[in-house]
Specification:
heterotrimer, A mainly alpha (290), B alpha+beta (335), C mainly alpha (276), B: alpha+beta, Rossmann fold, OB fold (Dihydrolipoamide Acetyltransferase, E2P), five-stranded antiparallel beta sheet, C: 276 residues, mainly alpha, globular
Chain lengths: 290, 335, 276
């Protein structure tokens, strides 16, 4: 089928996609890079001037940057830990025979389809609200004082909300991977006298290793860019207590109109994301050959 | 009519030459089998004939007409693929009708040919099923049916039986042979299984690394292999090769002797090869004895099933002199 | 695996699984209940909420607010529009890469994916400025384009993995059977590719519908989809629990249903084929 004629046609068919993506990637990227070296504020048009690495210097030495970097890492790390461990346990559970498997599966994956603004708002008002939230009602019932989650523990609350959204993703993927495990392997291990616990650690977990890596990498890509949940619940506050890198750059560029500073932040964010992306691409690339 | 001629046909993938320039004539009505180990270029050669790959040089003629640059559909050939390549979303009937639909045949003619093919291939009861609901053998027959209705000038088979189990394979082998006898159409058949080649072919083409090692009738190849490769490839169990003093005594670098051409004695024989039976496989009709000898190493012997040989027995082997094959250093047969 | 599972064991698992399943689903269930309550009952204590009267009042109110339907339509237009536009660009590309793979196909595919890894915030400023200068801020066209571009790699990738599962031999068989390119695409490829295309469409509508970075940053009122509408409830209207619940249910219901239908494909699409 590899005739010359079809090769030429193939190139023609790929080019629109390639050109569009190339433009979509290169143009804004080049602009971001360019802006990051300018003093450029939307409130002072016409005053742009070359400042070298000054934007980077300001951005990187801003205490808010360090705080947001730590918040970003806590957010990503916290959600990853909860979703991976929870996902493995849930996948193991859902893989057991029980009545109504299909329905429970549907219930478990549902949160993933809830749009971020809805889930953030619902958690904020209906559950975490210190006056009318469900948790406050429960606390009252037991005679305890209500806890103002978003004021007292803003980042932890956001981690909880985001983990609720992403737990289904991890579960679904790990369950799919678990189901692809060759049953004969487990039976062989059982014949060899392996207990359920050692079957899990010596056979299931290594089999899941690949899926776990994929979940970690993909979630990291998305979690680095968490935005709507913060915007809706805490606006990054109190102070910068729940501001992540994405939100900080948003504030800097679209709320403070500091294009130069925001762009410098953008470049930093791109570099951080690329570190993750390189590992992810390597894994996917390997898979492509198989 | 279905005479296919290859002249200096060559195929390169990038800089790698998979088929060096090669000549071959396939006569009208002939059943030709391309056989060789995997990677020998036999499937590529078939695909070149089909037009699914471009040739890198040379000419392909079908019935005298230059078909080198023709698209596959215009060559008037039909192909049966290893994976059957049935259209999963179409019923058996639609699958068989597809080439006729493409050719714009009338509904009535389509129906007539489908019924005839279904009858010949025992598919009448399955015409409205989807391929997914059929067994491997039935799918294979549908693929053949789809090829028959085109009334091609030649059939091309690409390892059509390799996905079937052993018993079914024997059946389908017979069915394809019968089909050839009824239709008398040229068939080109690719396989790595020398048994299929021996049982079905009028003419066998043995390929290795893109080269034609030998072309001939099955018995021709069996009796007069041109070289050690063909000698070892054709025939089962494999030919034994003996090097050293015994070969030199016959003015050869190596001697080849088929397991069925060795006389086995359980009492000492003058000048025979002495050895101990390692494993003996009793098939009932025959017995295969794997004999270790100090003198020439491992020798496999095939004897009648009623001869009682067991592991550990000492035996004396005498190759039948009229069935000895002699080879030189380069592996070419000395005649 | 024909081994009997003991009844008690199965019952225990059933109980545990249902409790956990319902707990995870609970927030959605809760707003579903709240959406049928009056505003006053919705903020009451949980027990009272459950026993209070059923009403469709909130749905009426949300519908009557003239702008709700516009947000909803914007969501439909953005998600369906960007998916269709994406398909038009992606189908030929994926087809070519799956059936006529070249030496660089793998690199091209990986590069396409890598554009997806670019954090949106890294290019927020230039996109915002380009849109401002071209008058595309708060326009559906501009947003359809952005959503198409961010989902294009996933669309191409998914289609590619589906197309690659169509055995090449079948297309060759069609060619041998006398089908030209047109017939090959029409009678053989398309029917076989439709399930894959359908799940690709489904997943991308879901992703576009829930996209909440660009839709929040590039729209204000005219082109704003439901993500923006819900975000505008943030305060002080957020205290209208029943209405917020009704609006939320309407915003997530279509996607929830689609998502349930495309569970399997979701795994493949979101992991770029790394887990199947």
């Amino acid at each position: 089928m590899a005739t010359k004629h079809s090769r030429a046609a193939a190139r023609l068919m790929i080019s629109p996609a390639v050109l569009l993506l190339l433009g979509w990637m290169i143009v804004p990227l080049a602009m971001t890079l360019y802006f990051s070296f300018l003093r450029y504020n939307l409130l002072m048009p016409g005053m742009e001037e070359w400042t070298g690495f000054l934007n980077y210097q300001y951005f990187l030495t801003d205490p808010a940057f360090i705080a947001s970097l730590i918040n970003t890492l806590l957010l990503v790390g916290g959600v990853l830990i909860i979703t991976i461990i929870g996902g493995i346990l849930l996948a193991l559970l859902l893989d057991q025979p029980f009545f109504g498997q299909g329905i429970v599966r549907i219930l478990v994956i549902a949160p993933f389809f809830v749009m971020p603004t809805v889930s953030a708002l619902v958690w904020k008002n209906m559950f975490l609200n210190p006056v009318n939230g469900l948790f406050a009602h429960v606390a009252h019932f037991f005679g305890l004082p209500a806890y103002d989650f978003l004021a007292q523990a803003p980042l932890a609350s956001i981690i909880g909300i985001v983990a609720w959204q992403w737990l289904p993703f991890a579960t679904l993927i790990l369950l799919t991977a678990l189901q692809s495990l060759d049953q004969e392997q487990l039976e062989a291990a059982e014949m060899d006298g392996a207990s359920p616990v050692s079957r899990f650690f010596h056979i299931m977990l290594p089999h899941l290793a690949r899926a776990i890596t994929v979940v970690v990498l993909i979630q990291t890509i998305f979690l680095l860019s968490i935005f709507a949940e913060i915007l809706v619940t805490t606006n990054g506050g109190p102070g910068v207590a729940s501001t992540n890198l994405t939100y900080l750059i948003y504030v800097q560029s679209l709320l403070q109109f500091d294009v130069g500073g925001g762009s410098a932040g953008g470049v930093v964010a791109i570099i951080l994301a690329n570190i993750v992306a390189i590992f992810l691409m390597r894994m996917i690339g390997k898979n492509l050959e198989a | 009519m279905g005479k296919i001629t290859l002249e200096k046909v060559q195929k390169k993938f990038g800089d790698v030459e998979v088929i060096p320039p090669l000549d071959l004539t396939i006569n009208d009505g002939e059943f030709v089998v391309f056989v060789g180990p995997s990677g020998c270029g036999k499937s590529t050669l078939l695909r070149l004939i089909a037009g699914l790959e471009d040739v890198s040089g040379g000419q392909i003629r079908i019935d005298g007409e230059d078909a080198t640059g023709m698209p596959p559909a215009k060559r008037g050939l039909a192909m049966v693929f290893q994976s059957y390549a049935l259209y999963p979303h179409m019923s058996v009937r639609k699958n068989i009708a597809f080439p006729m639909r493409m050719a714009g045949l009338s509904e009535a003619e389509q129906k007539k040919r489908i019924d005839a093919a279904a009858h010949a291939l025992n598919l009448t009861d399955y015409l409205d099923r989807k391929p997914g609901q059929l067994s491997g053998g039935q799918r294979q027959r549908v693929a053949i049916g789809r090829a028959i209705v085109r009334e091609p000038s030649a059939f091309l088979f690409d390892e059509p039986l390799s996905n079937l189990d052993a018993a079914l394979r024997v059946n389908m082998r017979l069915e394809i042979s019968e089909l050839h006898q009824t239709l008398k159409t040229t068939m080109v058949y690719v396989t790595h299984d020398q048994v299929e080649a021996m049982t079905m072919a009028d003419k066998i083409v043995v390929l290795r690394a893109g080269h034609i090692e030998q072309v001939g009738s099955p018995l021709d190849l069996y009796r007069h292999p041109d070289n050690r490769f063909v000698a070892g490839f054709i025939g089962s169990p494999k030919m034994n090769f003996i090097e050293g003093p015994r070969a030199h005594a016959e003015q050869a670098h190596a001697l080849g002797i088929r397991p069925e051409h060795i006389d086995l004695s359980q009492t000492p024989v003058q000048g025979a090869i002495e050895g101990r039976v390692g494993v003996s496989e009793h098939l009932g009709s025959d017995t295969f004895a794997h004999v270790h000898s100090e003198e020439v190493g491992q020798i496999n012997v095939r004897v009648a099933g009623d001869i009682d040989v067991h592991a550990g027995d000492t035996v004396w082997l005498s190759p039948q002199p009229q069935n000895l094959h002699r080879f030189d250093e380069a592996g070419l047969a000395l005649r | 695996m024909a081994r009997a599972v003991s009844k008690p064991r199965k019952l225990v698992f059933t109980l545990v699984a249902w409790i956990i399943g319902l707990a995870i689903f609970f927030p959605i269930l809760w707003i579903f209940i709240l959406s049928f309550k009056s505003e006053g009952n919705a903020i009451a204590a949980p027990f009272h909420v459950l026993t209070s009267a059923f009403t469709l009042e909130s749905y009426h109110t949300v519908f009557e607010r003239s702008n709700y339907l516009r947000y909803f339509m914007n969501s439909v237009i953005l998600s369906v529009g960007s998916t269709l536009l994406g398909l038009i660009i992606a189908v030929p590309a994926a087809w070519a890469m799956a059936f006529v793979p070249g030496r660089h196909t793998k690199d091209v595919l990986l590069w396409m994916l890598s554009t997806k890894m670019l954090p949106p915030v890294g290019v927020l400023v230039p996109i915002y400025l380009i849109f401002r200068d071209m008058g595309l801020l708060d326009s559906r066209i501009g947003l359809v384009f952005v959503l198409t571009m961010i989902n294009l790699p996933i669309i191409i990738w998914m289609l590619y993995t589906y197309f690659r599962e169509i055995p090449g031999e079948i297309l060759e068989a069609a060619r041998m059977d006398g089908a030209g390119l047109k017939e090959e695409v029409l009678y053989v490829l398309t029917p076989m590719a439709i399930p894959g295309i359908a799940s690709t469409v489904l997943l991308n509508i879901i992703l576009a519908w829930n996209e909440a970075f660009w839709t929040l940053n590039l729209t204000a009122a005219k082109a704003a989809p439901l993500t923006q509408f819900i975000a505008s409830y943030s305060s002080p209207e957020g205290l209208f629990y029943a209405k917020l619940s009704a609006a939320s249910i309407m915003a997530i219901a279509p996607i929830l249903i689609m998502g349930w239908f495309s569970q399997k494909q979701l795994v493949r699409g979101l992991t770029f084929g790394a887990v199947k």
